[in-house]
Amino acid sequence: MEPAERVDQNYELSLKEFPYIVRWRDDRCTRCGRCTAVCPVSAIEPTVQVQRTVTSEGTAPKPAAQRRLVHVVRQVRDIDRYCTGCGTCTLVCPNTAIEPEYNPQHKFLFHKNRGGAAYRRGGRRNDPQPSTVDQLKFVRISMLTDPALDAGRHEFRIRTYLGRNLPAEKLPLEVKRGRLARDEEAFIPPVREIYPIRIGSMSVGALSPHMWEGLAMGVAYLNEVEGMPVVMCTGEGGIPPRLLKSRFAKYFILQIASGYFGWDEIVHAIPEMTEDPAGIEIKYGQGAKPGDGGLLMAYKVLKLIARIRGVPEYVDLASPPTHQTKYSIEEAIAKMIQSMSMAWGFRVPVYPKISGTTTAQAVLNNAVRNPYAAALCIDGEDGGTGAAYNVSMDKMGHPIASNIRDCYLDLVKQGKQNELPLIAAGGMGKNGSLAANAAAMIMLGASAVDSGKYIMQATAQCFGDEYNRCNLCNTGRCPRGITTQDPRLYRRLDPDMVAERLVEVFKAADMELRKIFAPMGRSTELPIGMSDGLGCANREIAERLKIKHVV
Amino acid sequence: MVIKGNIKGRRVSSRELEAQIQRAVAEGHYRLTIKADGQHGIGGRIWPRGRKVRITVDGPVGQRLGSMGMEGTEIVVRGSASDDVGWINCGAEITVLGDVTNGAHNAGAQGVLYVQGGGGARCDTMTKFNPRFEPLQSWYFRDVGDSFAEFKAGGIAVVCGVEPRNPKNILGYRPCVGMVGGTIYFRGPVEGYSENDVRLLEMSEQDWQWLTENIVPYLKAIDRMEYLDELTRSPDDWRKLIAYTPAEKAARQPLKMSTVEFRRQVWEPEVGEGGIFGEYLDHDRTLLPYITTGEDRRFRPAWNNNKYLPPCASACPSRIPSHERTSLIRQGKLEEALELVLRYSPFPATVCGQVCPNLCMDACTRGVVLDQPLDIQRLGRLSLDIPAPEKAKPTGRRVAVIGGGPGGMSAAWQLALKGHEVDLYEATDRLGGKIEWCIPRSRLPQEVLAKEIERFRSLGIDVHLETRVDRKLFDRIYREHEMVIIATGAHEARMLRFPGWEDVIPGIDFLKSINLGLGPEYDFTGKKVAVIGAGNVGMDIACQAFDLGAESVTAVDIQPPASFGKEQEMARERGTEILWPKVTSKFDHERGRLHFEDGSAIDADEVIISIGDVPVLDFLPPGINTERGHITVSENGQTTDVKVFAVGDATRPGLITDAIGQGRTAAEAVHATMMDYDVAPELKQVIPYERIRAAYYESEPRDGFEPEQEANRCMSCGLCRDCGMCEVTCYYDAISRVEGEDGSFAYVVDDDLCIGCGFCAGTCPCGVWEMEENI
Q1: B265 touching chain A per CB within 8 A
Q2: pLDDT > 60? residue A2
Q3: Core-most of A221, B254, B312, B740, by most CB within 10 Å?
Q4: Are A158 and A175 in contact (CB under 8 A)?
C-alpha cells in the first residue's frame, strides 16, 4: 500500500471539496512570494510545475515537443491547511494575481473532522441570509408638519438607561416642609445614561492588545470628545489595571463569567479606582455558543494575558459552561447580583447576560423580582465568538428578535416595561445595518443593543463573514491582528486607526438612528417598544412579532 | 382704491379678495389699500405692468403676505404681519411696520423685506440665489427667533439688534443650520450658530459700505431715521456670518481631534506611557507591514543539507549513501565516490553488485516517481578494483571477531579501518560465510568474491581459519581481547517433524555441498524435486536442483512466497512452480509423494527443506542471553554482556546486507566504547518523496550504463546538488552561495532581505531547503 499513498492522489481531496478555491494567474504573477509569506494557514505554497507543448511547423506534420518547468503558486489540498478565503494573499499581491473564490459546492464539513476532532472556529453562525431583524422596516413616517423632526437640523438626544428605573411612586422620596427629600437609608437603584448601541463583550485575550486598546481609546474619545456616552463591556478576562484605575473606567462594563478570570486583580484595585464602572455584566451564556463555556487556547496565554487574568502562562483557560455552586435560576441570579453589587457598594448597575433561549422569560421574571437586577441582556444566535465548536455556532441558539419581543411583552403585561431594560445582542449589524438593526430591536422592546462582530469588521477590517471566510480567531493567526497575541500579527493593526474608525462608526450610526427616529417624531426618548412603527413583508415574522404585515 | 376684506361683518374669502385685487390691477389701479381680515397671500403674484403697484395693508394680515411677490410691487403693512411674509418672494418690496412672525422670507429669492420690529422663528430660511437678479434683502430692526436662516442659499439678511426681546442672543437658537450661501449682518450678541455650516467674520470695507448705503432707505421706510447714527457708528459693532464653501467643508478633518492627538493629550496622560498594556509589552510599539523580514518573519528558510536520509540509503540495511556517491561522481570525483562505498561495506561488488536484492533501488525516488531507479547494482560493481581505504592510525586495541561471514567480515573491516587490531576466527577453511557457501555460482562469479576477500585481507586482519570456537576457546578469546563480536551465523537447517522428515534434505547442507563439494553429491537427473519453503533461499535451491538435472521443481509454502527479485525471477524462468498455502503432512520417499494437510499431494522424488536456519551457539557462556535460539542484542548489537556484541544471522535471520550493516553498527559501537565516546545513534529520518521536485527531471530511457549518466539521473534526495536554483528563484536576492576554504559550499540566507515566502523550499529540486517557524 505504501507506494500508492506516497505518490498518488488516492488519499487526497479534490479542490472542489474545499470552501475556497484560490484563483492564481500565472501570467500576472512575478513569483515575489508575498502571498505565500502571509497566508495564515499556509494554504498556498510555491512549487514547480512542468508545462509541455507539442507544436508542428512547416507544411506537413512535423511534431516537436517542448518541455519547460515553471515555478508556480499552488493551493494545498490538505484539509488542515484549507484556504479560508481570508484574501490576505489578494491584499498583498502587487499584481492582482491571486484571489480566493468561494466554492458553493464545497463539502468542507464532510471532511473537517480529521483525527475525530469536531471543527472549531471563530466568527458567528454561517448563515448569510438576512436575519429576521434585517427584514424589519420602519413604516411609520411623519412628514407633513413643521417641526417634523429633521435628522440634519434638529438636535437629537439618543440615550438609554442602564439600570432599573423605579416609577415615581416607588422612589423613596417625600415632601418635607415643602421640599422634596430623599430617604437616605433607602435603596435607589443605580442608573447610567448611556448610548443605546454598546460594544459587546470581547475579552482581553480574545482580542489582541492593539485591538482592545484601540476600542477602549475610541470609547473614551466618543465620551470625552464627541459627548456620546458609549460604553464597552470588557468580556471575561479582566481589565488592564491601568485602565481600571483611570477615570475612563466609568465607560466600561466589567464582565464576570464562569471562569472568574482577572477578578482578584480587579478586587485588589477597587480602593485605587477613581471612578465606578458603568456596570457589571454577569455572563451566564453567550449567543454564539449557548451551553458552552469559553476557551482561550494556551498559545494565546502570553505574559500579558496571564497577568491580567491571574493565571500561569501557556495554559488552556477554560470557563465552564455554567457558574458553579448555583442550583436554581433564583439562586444564580440572586447570589451573583448581590455579590457583584456589594463590591461597589450597590452604586453600579449589575445585570445578567444570557444566551437567547426559550427559557429567557423565566430568567426575566427572576430579574424582575430581584430589586438589584439592573437589566437583562439576551444574546441571540447570531452572536460572534473567538472560539467555539462549529455545531454550537451553526445549530444552537435562539434568534434574538422573538426572544426580546416575548420578554418585552411580558414586561408590558406586568407594567414593568419602563422599569427593567432589556439589552439585545447577537447579529446586530450582521449585514452591515447596525443602526437599522438597533432601531428595530429598540422598537421591538430593547433598551439597547450590543455589537461586537460588526465593530471588528468595521473598525479593523476583520475579514470574517457568514461564508466562513477567515474565521480563524481561535487559532491565534488572525491575519488582521485582531484576535491574536502574536506581536508579529497584531502589530499590523494600528490602535489609533481602530479608535478613529470606532468614532466614525458611531457618528455614522448616530446619524442613521436620527434618520430612522426623526420621521417617528422621536428626538429625546427612544421609541422603545414602539412596534406600530415596524413592518415586515414576511407574514410569519409579522404575526410572531406582533408588528404590521406590509407588502 | 380701497378693497375691503370684511364687508358688513362678512369676511371676504382669500379667493375672493385675491380676485378683486387682480381685477383692480388689471383695470389699471396702481394704488390699493386693503382692509384685510386675515386673508392669505395678500399682494403677491402681481406681474410687472410698467408702473409700480403700491399696496397698503391695514387690519389683521393673514399668512404669506406678499408671497410670490413680483418686482414692481410695493407692499406696506401698517402693523404686524403673520407667518411666511414674502414666501418665495420674487422681487416685491415689503415693509412691515411691526413684527413678522415665523418664516418671514422663507424661500425668498429676490426683493426686499423691511421689518420695523423683530422676526419670529425660521425667518430667512431656504432663501435663494439667482444671478439674473439682485440679491434678496431682509432687514430686521430688533432680533429674530430660533432656527434663523436654515438652509439659506442666497440674499442678505440684516439684524440690527435694537431693543432685542432676548438681549443675550439676537439670532435665536441654532441659526444657520444647513446654510450654504448669502450673508447675515448682525449687531449684538449671539449664543452660537451652526459652526458646521457658517463662519463668523468681521465686517470688511465693502460690507460696511453696502450696509451704510442700504440702511438709509430701510430706516426711512420703517420711519426710524433717528437710529442712523447709532447703527452706523462703527463697523466694529457689526459682524457677519457667511457659509463655508463646499471645498472648505470637504477639506475639513472629519474628527474634531485626531485619535493620535487624543492618545497623546488625553489617553496616555491618564493611563500611562505606552497605553493600558504598556507595563506588559516589551516589543517595539511601532506597526509592522504584512511583509516582514528578519525576526518579524513568521517562517524562515533553513538549508538542511543532508539532514535527512534519501530513500535509497534509508532502505539499505548497510546504509550505503548512494546519494553521496553520485554527488561525488557529478563533481568529477569518481575514485572518491567508489571508495566512499568501501567505508560502508567490504563487498560493494559482491553484495551490491551481485547478490543483494538491492532494496535501495526499490526505494529510489527516481524509480518510484518517474521512470527507473538508479542502477546502484552496477555502481556497486564499479568499486571492485578500488583498493581498501587507508587505515587510521593504530590504536593498539585488540578486538576479536568470531565468524568469517559477511557480518563478521563487515565488523572486522570497520574495526581495522579505524586502526584496531582484529583477530578473526573462522571455523572453515575460507572466508565469506554464506556468500561463499550458499549463493549459486551462477549468481556470483567466483573471481569477484575472491577479489573482494583479497582486498579484505589487505587490511592486515589476523584471520584464524579452521578455528572452530568452542566454549573453552571463547573464554580465552574473551579474556585476551578488549571486545568480542560474535558473527557465527546460522548453519543448521530448521526441520519440520512430519512423518518421513528423516528423508528430507536440509537446504543449507544441499547448497554447501554444491558450492564447496562437501557431503554427498546429488544427482537429480529426471527427478521431480519439491522444495519446502518458497523464500529466496528456496529459489536458489530450485535453480541448483535444475542444474543437477531435475525434471521439475515445485516450491511449496504455507504463506505467500517470501521470495522476490532476481532469485524468484531466475527460479521461475527455469520452470519452478510455486504452490501455497500448503502445509506438509507427510513425505513418502518410497512412493515419491509429498502430502499436505489439505489432502492434496504432489509427486516428489526428493524433498529439500528451506524454511530458515538456526544458529549453533553451544560456545556461549551463561552471561549471554538468547531468545528462541538467537542471541539477544540491543539496537547496536550489544549482547547482555557489555563486552560482547553479536551481529548477523546469529541474532536474527536476515539478508547479507543486513549482516553487513549490523557488522558496521556493532563495530562503531565497539569503537565508541573503547575510545570512550558516546555513540551517536542514527537519528536521521528519511525524506518524504513529496519533498523531491521530480518535475525537474524528464523521463528518459536509460541508454547503456555510464557512471556520470547515472549520477545525473540521481535526484539527490536531501543532498544539495549545488544547482543554484534557490539563488535564482529568490525574488529578494536573499540567498547566496558561500564557499569554504576546503572547497565545501553552503547556501546562506540574508535574514534582512528574506520575507519567508518559501519559494526556495518549494522549488528546491532536492528538498534541502525547509521552512521553519521563526521563533
Answers
A1: no
A2: no
A3: B312
A4: no
Q: Is A153 on the interface with B (CB under 8 A)?
A: yes
B84 touches A: beta carbon within 8 Å: no
pLDDT above 80: residue B371: yes
Residue of A142 and A195 predicted with greater confidence = A195
Query: Which of the four pLDDT bands, split at 50, 70 and 90, describes residue A144?
Result: confident
Task: Using the predicted structure, report yes or no on whether residue A1 has a pLDDT greater than 80.
Answer: no
Which of the given ranges, A240-249, B515-524, B537-546, has the highest pLDDT on average? A240-249
Model ipTM value: 0.94
Backbone phi, psi, residue A194, to 5°: -130, 170
Judged by CB atoms closer than 8 Å, whether chains meet at A217 and B263 is answered as yes
Helices and strands per DSSP (H, E), number in chain B? 23, 34
CB contact under 8 A, B277 and A487: no
Structural domain boundaries in chain A: 13-54+63-117, 134-549
User: How many CB atoms are closer than 10 A to CB A267?
Assistant: 10
B residues 141-170 near A, CB within 8 Å?
Answer: 147, 150-151
Q: Give the confidence band of A300 by pLDDT, cuts at 50, 70, 90.
A: confident
Nearest to B337 by CA among B352, B321, B353: B321
In this structure, the dihedral spanned by the alpha carbons of residues A9, A13, A15 and A20, taken in order and rounded to 10 degrees, is: -150
The strand pairing partners of A187, in sequence order, are none
Beta-carbon count within 10 A of B10 CB: 8
Q: Which domains does chain B have, with CATH numbers?
A: 2-250 (2.160.20.60), 259-287 (no CATH), 311-386+688-713 (no CATH), 398-490+615-675 (3.50.50.60), 492-614 (3.50.50.60), 720-773 (3.30.70.20)
Cβ–Cβ below 8 Å for A492 and B288: yes
Instruction: State the pLDDT at residue B682.
Output: 66
Query: Would you call B279 an interface residue with chain A, using a CB distance cutoff of 8 Å?
Result: yes
Residue B91 has phi, psi (to 5 degrees) of: 145, -5
**What amino acid is encoded at B626 in this protein?**
T
User: Nearest residue of A to residue B300 by CA position?
Assistant: A37
| CATH architecture of the domain formed by A13-54+63-117 | 2-Layer Sandwich (3.30)
CATH architecture of A134-549: Alpha-Beta Barrel (3.20)
Find the mean pLDDT for residues B38-66: 92
Task: Check whether the bond before A40 is cis (ω within 30° of 0).
Answer: no
